[in-house]
Amino acid sequence: MTPAPLAMTMGDPAGIGPELILKAWLDRDAIGAPFFAIADPRTLTALAARLGLDVPIIAAEAAGAAEIFDDALPIVSLTHEVSAESGRPDSKNAAAILESIERAVEFVRQGEASAVVTNPIAKSVLYEAGFQHPGHTEYLGELAARWGDAARPVMMLWSPELAVVPVTIHIPLAEVPRALTCEAIVETGRIVARDLQTLFKIARPRLVMAGLNPHAGEGGAIGREEIDLIAPAIAALRGEGYDVVGPLSADTMFHAAARKKYDAAIVMYHDQGLIPLKTLAFDDGVNVTLGLPFIRTSPDHGTAFDIAGQGRANPASLIAAARLAARLAAA
Questions:
Q1: N or C: which end of the chain has fewer CB within 10 A?
Q2: Which among 171, 164, 275, 176 has a CA at the least distance from the CA of 230?
Q3: Rounded distance, CA 12 to CA 120, Å?
C-alpha cells in the first residue's frame, strides 16, 4: 500500500517557510514522496512570482494531493486569514500558523497524511497572541493529548553524522540543574531506545549519555549531578536491558571516532547537543519528535526573518526533513 502524502505546515509566513516549500517542490525528486502544504495559496503564488520560481500552485484537498503533486504544488487552504510581509513578523498571523500545525496533525490522524513536516515558527510571535508552550515540540505533545493520545514528546536532532537528544529543552540554562531528575533521564532514554527500534529499525540501539558538568563532574569535584542523578538513571536503564554508556564528558563525545560507537547521544541541555549537531550537519540536520503517536520532522533552523523573501533561503534541511519523514512513514 502506498503511504499517504506528507502534510507540510506553513510555518511563520513572514519567515523563510513559504520559500522553502516552493523550493522543496522544485527539488521534489530529492524527497521521493509527495507532500501538500497547509498554507495560504495567495501568499505562496505571490512569493513564487516575485522570486521567479516556476511553481504552479493548486488549491487542493488532502485526499487528492498525491495525484497532482508531480505537476503542481498542492495547497490545502487555511481558514484563518494570512497577511504577511516577508521579514516582518506579525502576531495577527498566529491563528493561521497554529491552524496549519493542528490540521497537519489531524490529517495524519485521519489517514490522509503519513507524517507531519513542520516549517519554522517564531515563538515570540505566538507568545504575543497568548501561546502557552515553550516551543513546537511541547505544543505537538499537547495536540496528541488533546485527541486522547498519551505522549511525552522528546526532541531528537538527527543527521547521518550524529543524532542527539536533550533531556531538557527550551528553558534557561540556570534552570537546567533544577529541572533534571533521574526519572526524566530514564524516561527520555526509554523513548529514544524504543523509537530508534520502531522507527529507525535499529535492533539494539547504542546510547551514550553526557554528564552535566565539565569533565562529567570529576567524581563530584565539579558537581554531583552525575553521581546523584545521571549514573543512577543509566543503571536503571541498563537494568531494563538497554545499551547505555556514561556519564561521559561532553567535550570528548562528538569527534569522529567517538560517534562510531553509538546511535544517539543523550545530553542534559539544549546547546550541549545542538552545537555539535549543527556544526557537523547544519544544512541537512533534521528535528525529529520522538514519543508521539505520529511522525513529525522539521528543519533544524529557525525562521530567518533577516533573509526572508529574498530568494536566499537554503531548502536543504527541509528537504532532508521531508525525506526522513517519508522514510520513517514507509517503515
A1: N
A2: 176
A3: 6
Residues in the chain: 331
CATH of the domain at 22: 3.40.718.10
What are the φ/ψ torsions at residue 158 (nearest 5 degrees)? -120, 145
As a whole number of angstroms, the distance between CA 209 and CA 31 comes to: 32
Domain enclosing residue 52, as ranges: 1-151+294-331
Residues 242, 205: Cα–Cα separation, whole Å: 8
d(CA 226, CA 257): 24
Q: Are residues 118 and 59 in the same domain?
A: yes
- Beta strands (DSSP E) in 217-263 are 243-248
pLDDT tens column, 53-88: 999 999 999 888 899 999 999 999 999 888 888 888
List of E strands, the chain: 6-9, 35-39, 57-59, 73-77, 116-117, 154-158, 163-166, 206-210, 243-248, 264-267, 286-290, 296-299
Model's pTM, two decimal places?
0.89
Taking only the tens place, the pLDDT of each residue in 268-316 is 999 999 999 999 988 888 999 999 999 999 998 888 899 988 999 999 9
Of 271, 162, 167, 151, residue with least CA distance to 209: 167
- The helix/strand/coil state of 240 is coil
Phi first, then psi, for residue 5 (nearest 5°) are -65, 165
